[in-house]
Amino acid sequence: MASLPLKLVAFAGILIHICLCIQVEAYASLLDRITALPGQPQVGFQQYSGYVTVDEKKQRALFYYFAEAETDPASKPLVLWLNGGPGCSSLGVGAFSENGPFRPNGQVLVRNEYSWNREANMLFLETPIGVGFSYSKDASSYQGVGDKITARDNLVFLKNWFLKFPQYRNRSLFITGESYAGHYIPQLADLMLEFNKKEELFNLKGIALGNPVLEFATDFNSRAEFFWSHGLISDATYTMFTSFCNYSRYVSEYYRGSVSPICSRVMSLVSRETSRFVDKYDVTLDVCISSVLSQSKVLTPKQVGETTVDVCVEDETVNYLNRKDVQKALHARLVGVRGWAVCSNILDYELLDLEIPTITVVGKLVKAGIPVMVYSGDQDSVIPLTGSRKLVNGLAKELKLETTVPYRVWFEGQQVGGWTQVYGNILSFATIRGASHEAPFSQPERSLVLFEAFLDSRPLPEAF
């Protein structure tokens, strides 16, 4: 009986410790709450942004922006969005130009009617270190960054983010993104599954990859046919582009600093015929003249869309996010850079990681029971739909997955939204008709329909 009070005291101590931890965690997220962004219309959902430290020693911290679901966030899944580059911002590209709740318009923000936070709690992450507002106090952290470091940092970010937002720990989690996120997302998902073997933390329900880099040669070499079939290059140049120097060879030589004379000649022809005044991320769209020079970056996402949207939205985003009042509202700071940029100027990424295929990792995830959707804006010549479709079809054959939804059109409203095919009810491919590399920007309504189907694990609509 004498030991009973000691047990009670110990138990009381544990309860106090748990309560204190919960209070600290709740306070941490409270500090990150955004009261209102400058020029923002009134909304009924909560927003948060701030930093999550991924390396205490070198003071490396990743910046995030989190928009809870418009209605009933407690019942909606958590979705992590990653842009590619490598080295481009999920805040500026994803959140403020594609599928976030607002878009900059002059000095104010306007509502995005087709924001993905209508259906989910949206978490946008500026990764890797050196992108956007993410920083390190040690400048050497920006050197030699590659896929493995990025995947590890993203995993640590999520683990620590859950400490700030413990209510999301067991929530259904999806990861989505585009372009070089075809590397980021499968590698992060793979680490999550490995981590879960030790500790069940990530309730991963699926990944969706938009116009993704999955297998370097297949993805890049599909550009020649896309250019030719859309009338951007001549028959003679197409023959040279496929016979003497394909695009994967040129990029490989370029990244190694030794472009051969034949590749130099072929690419000169391709560049002249495709023209700097055609946006390679959406070959049907006019370009924004003020930012046309930046559109030549190999995998840098650009904001492009229909004629009814602002093709200069990148300029507006840069201006907005470099306002001091905006940075204060976002709890953001500039460390080691003069201003916020769409794509990092200080990050030295291991670009040869581009050549390491991630379609094999996608296969590993499918085998582990994780649903995967690959979707393509069909006006993108940077990572054309033909390469992505070929890779998904090849993976389905390799995994011996039967076709469960035959290749067919899908609808948004009373219009064809695109085409789709599903294998084994776990691996799917879809196109978004009329969409660019950044599909949620150029075709927001169709992209939202696709997103809803992805979250609900149901086929895309096959009727009006």
Provide an overview of this structure.
One of its GO terms (biological process) is proteolysis. One of its GO terms (cellular component) is extracellular region. One of its GO terms (molecular function) is serine-type carboxypeptidase activity. The protein has 464 residues and is of the alpha/beta class. The protein is 37% helix and 19% strand. The chain has 15 helices and 15 strands. Strands 1, 2, 3, 6, 7, 9, 10, 12, 13, 14 and 15 form an 11-stranded mixed sheet that branches. Strand 1 and strand 2 form a beta hairpin. Helix 2 crosses helix 10.
Structural class: alpha/beta
Number of strands: 15
State the helicity in percent bands. 25-40%
Q: What is the beta-strand fraction?
A: 15-25%
Provide the residue-averaged pLDDT. Answer: 90
Rg, Cα atoms, Å: 23 Å
